[in-house]
Structure of DUF3592 domain-containing protein:
Amino acid sequence: MTVLAAAISVLAVLLVLAAWRNDHTISSDEGVATAEVLSAGRLRSAVSFVTPDGEMHNPRLGVLYPTNLVAGQRIDVEYARSEPDLVRVAGRDASVAVIPALSVVVVTWAIAGPLILVLRRRAQ
C-alpha cells in the first residue's frame, strides 16, 4: 500500500514538473495566435489555429490548461514556434496544475495512511 501511494504521489509531482517543462519550452520560443475551440472537455480540448507562416495546426493532444472552454469559442493561445503542437491557453501556466496534483497526493495519503496502519496492526 505504501508503494502504491508513493507511486501515485511521484506521478502527481512528475505531472506538475512536465507542465513546467512545457511552459518553459513555450515561453522560450513563444508564438501567439487566435484559435478556435473545436471541442471542449474538462481534461482535453481540441483547437485549431494558423501560424504566421500560413500553416494550420490542430494539435493532436489538444491545448494545455483547457478548463472553462466552449466549443466554437475563439481564444488566444501561446505555442512553441519550434513545436506548434505544444500549445496552451494564453495567460495560463503550470500553476493551474499544482492544486489538482496536490489534491491527488492528499487524498491518496488520506486513504492510504489509515489502511497502512490497519494492515500493520493486523500483521502484528
